[in-house]
Design goal:
mainly beta, 39% strand
């Protein structure tokens, strides 16, 4: 006696070999798909106190922008204290939104480009200003953009996350500013050469 299947009878769907065209987005949204970035050696400390160090540990560069590897190292007395700190640091990455979710004394940082334009982690998201009728493949904001990429990584005393900076900072330098009053870091700025970012961006190649 043949056993009956748990599943009901159905008609298999036909195979479709055609693929939908990829959804095109403007450059400011984030790093491009299908592109292998050039890697820049950009180790620079942007803030320090007795208990905390904030740094940019490297960068993945593309012709249109760069993913900065932001890192926080802390000197805390116990695991629970570190857990609470890193949980608060976890950037709330909604749809195109970079929100530090911290109080008045929390971490904030930003970049001033060589042409004088500035962007900080406290700025409004470009998602809030894009006109509804604007084509997402063509519209660009009139100012630089900082946005989170992926999820934060936590390992013992360190927290890291990729941060997309658009556009690629022009030559010759950019100024990175950091403050974290709750951790004893007063407003500090450091001037960074962008020559390495441009050299790395020139090495970016399509994956396929």
């Amino acid at each position: 006696m043949a056993s009956s299947s748990f599943f009901p009878q159905f008609t298999p769907s036909e195979d479709h070999d055609e693929e939908d065209p990829p959804f095109q987005l403007a450059d400011w949204y984030g790093p491009p798909h299908g592109v292998r970035p050039g890697v820049a050696d950009l180790g620079v400390e942007i803030g320090r106190s007795e208990s905390t160090v904030v740094s940019v540990q490297g960068a993945d560069a593309y012709p249109a922008g760069v993913v900065l590897d932001l890192a926080v190292h802390v000197r805390e007395g116990g695991r629970e204290a570190r857990r609470r700190l890193f949980a608060a640091l976890g950037l709330h990455h909604g749809r195109g939104q970079l929100d530090l979710c911290l109080g008045a004394g929390g971490l904030r940082w930003g970049v001033e480009l060589a042409d004088g334009r500035r962007v900080t982690t406290l700025d409004e998201s470009p998602w809030n200003e894009r006109p509804e009728e604007a084509d997402p493949s063509e519209w660009n904001p009139s100012h630089p953009v900082l946005d989170g990429v992926g999820r934060p990584q936590v390992w013992y005393d360190s927290w890291r996350r990729g941060i997309w900076l658009w556009p690629l900072p022009p030559l010759p330098t950019m100024r990175v500013v950091c403050a974290w009053p709750d951790r004893g870091i007063e407003e500090t700025s450091v001037v960074v050469s962008t020559k390495g970012l441009h050299a790395a961006a020139a090495r970016a190649r399509p994956v396929w």
